[in-house]
From TrEMBL:
Calcineurin-like phosphoesterase N-terminal domain mapped to chain residues: 63-122
Domain Calcineurin-like phosphoesterase C-terminal, chain residue ranges per copy: 398-593
Protein name: Calcineurin-like phosphoesterase family protein
Coiled-coil features, chain-numbered ranges: none
Taxonomic classification: Bacteria, Bacillati, Actinomycetota, Actinomycetes, Pseudonocardiales
Positions of the Calcineurin-like phosphoesterase domain: 162-369
Signal peptide boundaries: none
Species of the source: Prauserella alba
Tree of life domain: Bacteria
Amino acid sequence: MAIAATSAAVVAPAAGAQQEQAGDGVYRGEVQVVPASAGTTEQNVLTGTVFVDDNEDSSAGDGERGLAGVVVSNGRDVVTADSEGRYRLPAFDNMTVFITQPNGYQVPVDEYNVPQFHYNHLPEGSPDLKYGGIEPTGPLPSAVNFPVVESPGTAAPEQSCVVAGDLQTYNRTQLEYARKGAINDLAQRNDYASCGSLFVGDVVGDDLSLYPEVKELTKQTNGPARFLPGNHDLDFDAATPEHSFDTFRAQLAPTYYSYDVGDVHFVALNTVEYPCTPDEDNLDGLGSHCDDPEGDPSYNGSIDDRQLAWLERDLEHVAKDKLIVVAGHIGLINYNDQASAVHQTDQARDVYELLKGRKAVAVSGHSHTTENMKKGDSAQGWKDTLGLDKLPFPHITAGAISGDWYSGEVTEDGYPTAIGKDGGRPGVLTLDIDGTKFQERYTVTGADDRVQTQLGINSPTYREWSEERAEWNENPQGDAPELDEPLVVDSGDLAGTTWLTTDFWMGASGSSVKVALDGGPAKKAARTQEMNGEAKRNGPEWSDPYAVAQQLVHGGSIADSSMHLWRYELPVDLEPGEHTAEVTATDSYGREFTDSLTFEVVG
């Protein structure tokens, strides 16, 4: 079942007027904005009602009951609706008022499956921005009423929730790649209809005029399509942080908000600060992390004081036994960018303190990598940049729909291979939730859920070729070095060190990989990053040869470091001829995934 929604509230029709119905069984509607009455002078308090929209016309009335206890916020203050569904909030210019969807209920969605649960108040509108920003809203409305309908689906403790990283389309060609790839996959699935999908930032690639076409894509998905902002969703011509996401707010969603599904409380955060310059006193007091050498405005991974205060107040209304999913574009922490403060969130430890004692998992995008980090994991870069020792709860970097920015060879299915700098492939993350427990799974674009690994041979010949090819790519002259047969191993290479590699995309601490050669006993492979506080390892010997062999020929980043790569050293006495390796990758939940590789020893 598809569900739709919009993000910009509109003036509701007169009482009793019927909204156009799609006839698809989906609750489609909008927030009811009642214009200010003539002569209204009070502009410092906003009132309204959260109501159960029995006739689905988006208008409060006809005896429809108010819904008590629903959380309502202006992005600063947090209140709950009274016994009749009424609320009162302090009002100020440039605020976004929104509700937290309660479990057992569904907010309306628009024709594009974008949820309608908020109202932007900006009386004079945005400053002059290239992509328009928010149109003037005029005086404070007499009321802003939020409709919901009952939903057994959102009440169920079993949920599947899609987390989609970095759609990041720069043009219409890439929109078509996304449509033929991950969006087509999501259109074929119906397991996530109640929870929906959360696109965790970089919805487009700087061209905000593409938002309407992105919504044409989410029109094909099932369940609500929610969004949070990334560093490529910015109004780059905004002079202050207060207006840096105005076009995003007008087209898609608040910059931060929360919603409930089953026994889970989702918090969608804005972890991007812009503009951020080295010589200014930024909201978080960490201007030095804005490291543009020219002093031009740049972005930084950061959560401002107002949002942190909102998060604390929001969590006060959440039962202690709920699972909290904390989502942001720039992750609280990241493996690939562990040495960069800009690409992690300055206030990570503040968020950890707010979540202390709670069940939680953090999800993010930004790095275009897949990273499954467990409680207790540690990395040298986190100590150096954030003063962080061990993770207090799991963190997952969700990969990217765009993969490695739509690079590489275009497949016969009409989208690029786009293999990432960690060897990961484009796809989406799903959290399969049962009560307050969850299991993560990654679905590669165009593939079955059982496809979780890619295998390769890392030999001295491969490593020499990869270095030569990388140098040639920097300064192409003459013929490019070739690696014609990546699965042929010279017997002389076995005297050095040759590994069979397994890139296990959702592999993590607690996972294992075993290799059985030619029907023999299965033996353990070693993980290249133990996540025990060591520094990031990179270079040809730590690379994914399957990925690099494609990237150095067809373009893209180089997969020379990964937290999810395992290596098995091939015996030095392997006889010449064909050999088969059977690989079993077991995740931290005991789920097994099998793969095989046939290679040849010569000489």
